[in-house]
Amino acid sequence: METPPDLAAVRLLAMALPDAHETLTWGHPQFRVADKIFCAVEPEPDGVPAITVKVGKPHLTLFLADPRFRQADYVGRHGWVTLKLGPQVPTEELQALIETSYQLVRGKLPKRAGK
Q1: Domain residue limits, the chain
Q2: Which of 3.50.30.80, 3.40.1260.20, 3.40.50.10470, 3.90.1150.30 is the CATH number of 7-50+65-106?
Q3: What is the pLDDT of residues 3-32, one digit of tens each?
Q4: Rounded (10°) angle between helices 7-15 and 91-107
Q5: What pLDDT digit, counting tens, does each position of 41-88 carry?
Q6: Which end of the chain is more exposed for a tag (fewer CB within 10 A), N or C?
């Protein structure tokens, strides 16, 4: 059985992306490109870590139909979801979520940013 993803797995996947860097904001690790957040990690009320990533407004309903996802606090209406990490999240899915969020955020940056 695969080990459930944790902060170390998220960090490894996020930091492998070009120009990505980690910050500690509001007491939680966040991964950014050109100072724009593409992935945030924070504990849920039960202490299990969760990630918040951008999936885009057009796909929000699709993700929210999956009970593992919830609309992210504060930014959910802009196409962000939160997913509690655990054995129900395969590494391949985690990687796809992080990479998609990175691309969506990076795509909105001015051309000169992130070079």
Answers
A1: 7-50+65-106
A2: 3.90.1150.30
A3: 557 889 999 999 999 999 999 988 899 999
A4: 50
A5: 998 888 889 999 999 999 999 999 999 999 999 999 999 999 999 888
A6: N
